[in-house]
Amino acid sequence: MTAEPDGPEDRLRRFATIWSRAVFPVTSTSSTRPEFEAHLLPLARRLSEALRARAFDADAGKAVGAALVDAHCTDPEALSRTLDCVDAYLVLYCGDDGDQEDLRARCARLQHAMAAGFARALRERTLAEQEAIAQAALQAQGVVAQALHASEARFRAVFEGAAIGIGMADLEGNILQVNGALLRMFGVSEQTMRSRNVKEWTHPDDAPQTWRLYDELVRGEREHYHLEKAFYRPDGTVLWTNLTVSLLRDADGDPQYQLALMEDTTERRLLNLRLRYEATHDALTGLPNRTFFFERLEKALGAGKGQRFGLCYLDLDGFKTINDSLGHAAGDRLLVEVADRLQSCATAPGEMVARLGGDEFVALTTGPDTQREVDELATRIMNALLAPISVDGRELTVRGSIGIVEGPAGERSPAEVLRSADITMYRAKSAGGNRFELADPEADARAITRHGLTTALPTALERGEFFIEYQPLVHLGDGSVRGAEALVRWLHPQHGVLGPDRFIPLAEHTGLIVPLGRWVLEQSVRQAREWRELHGGAEAVGPLRINVNLSPCQLTHPGLVQDTVDILERTGIEPDALCLEVTESALIGADDDLLKPLRRLAEMGVDIALDDFGTGYSNLANLRRLPVSILKLDRSFTQSMQQFPADPVDLKIVEGIVSLAHSLDLAVTVEGVETGAQAEQLRILGCDTAQGWYYARPGPPERLHELALVDATG
């Protein structure tokens, strides 16, 4: 099966071609360039698969790096060109169907893994050469006299022709012999080198065990040792090496010489440092990135007793608006300037600033007195953002919200600390922004609970964890039950029964309110049909009606009318059995497009009730244009009527609302009726129906059936 033109296989081969052309000139292979390209193609395919794999696998990069050494690409320039080629072209030709930012990050990690695999394979190859040289040296010392000349000749050939540096010294450290490779590494003449003593080659970065191992070797207590060591060249530059020193003994087994084998690792070390920097720093701002920050935070949280930490989690207010209006390039320049200002705020020992991503930054301070220092750090950050930032000739005002977490080391994990800071930052943002807030464990617990409920909502509907309770609607004139309001509840496996105030806002935020509302509507209408069948139709006790609440999100959903029609048709019940309750706040300033679905439902015969009437600021004159037939008076107007005498001002207000409603042919329902005196007063004022604990609390549908039977048998 052949790939389509310019398909994935073609792009992969193009990448292999570019790679082979870049590396072939610095290889030691006897193959032709096309043969070398064919050798690189499976390596390119492995890099492509690792780039797009679900889980990142560094072993693939290490294997490719090792394969380069096997292909005789041992020149450091071959690795440098390979990494440049991978950096420039791998994502371009092999990663066009993924998140580019994530692919670039993976590409950088693959380069690091390739360099590590290359270094390891080259080191193993070098050690093998070193072992062969050491064996040759030992054999040269122990051969019989008749073969001494031939052995010395072989040793000389290996000694002079080796690509690694070799030097021999006596047990006092005086250098006796060096090869050309070692002279080139240090950049000195043989005379200069032989005038030096091994003990003079100290360096500040020497490992603590370096000279202890040397002393043990010259005393004959060990045969060899291997470590990484730095040397100063005469020009002041640093030479990094993989150093192996072996002890040579005479025919009697007494220590006689020391043999040093050196591999120049300076370029590889610089490359690793560069890759490490790129992997731990943000490419845009140069600040430490999320990876580096978590390393520092984990170290700070693991500090000893008496140490504390303070963390400021910053999110810019309104940054998305800047990106959307001025473009991402302007947004990037703004982030660079913000990063520079934040960097200037964290210059004390134990302080650092990092960019987590987007417009989110963190500042960390450590020490014994972070309770004071973290507040001062947050204040410096807020002050640093006061001055406008000039971008493309515009003066942009930048503000931020900061969540602060402070505490002793060793009590929380990095993930827990960052989660608390994130929650606290959003609390500062919801309070208006441009401020900082301190973490509060209780607020964190509430936020975590909200998040848990939000993530559990979709499956809760599938599992049937929701149920409906019904609160009767009672006619104030004759006390008969005219229907009920459907109130949804959630039977949560851990938290028990949750009222709608706990999960309806979450459902609206996630969009789940639409399928949940559709389910409540269908269940409630089916229940209304069962009530009518149980009571022998509407004639027995009057038409039983079901009231169902509609959220603002449902009002704007294009399927509202059709869903309602379908449910009524499936259940076989008339539209007059249904009343949809809409809060007053949802209809304040509503235009004709928003009111159109409600008008269509009202024309079908569905009652529309204006819920929580009196809590908003709508003009009473707007009632004439709203397709409502019922006003539900908010309980705040009638609470004073629970005792006698009632507040005369509240009486006048309710009387005026009832009079206005009746003049517009609107019925009035009152919520929150809790006493007989309250119910009687509302009856006198002319209210039509009421609901509240005085009549019944919300309960199962059987309770409404029992109440209706009592009314019917009177």
Automatic annotation (TrEMBL):
Location of the EAL domain: 450-712
Residue ranges of domain GGDEF in the record: 307-441
Signal peptide per UniProt: none
Superkingdom of the source species: Bacteria
Pfam families with a match to the protein in the record: EAL, GGDEF, PAS_9
Ranges for domain PAS: 151-221
Start and end residues of each PAC domain: 225-277
Record protein name field: GGDEF domain-containing protein
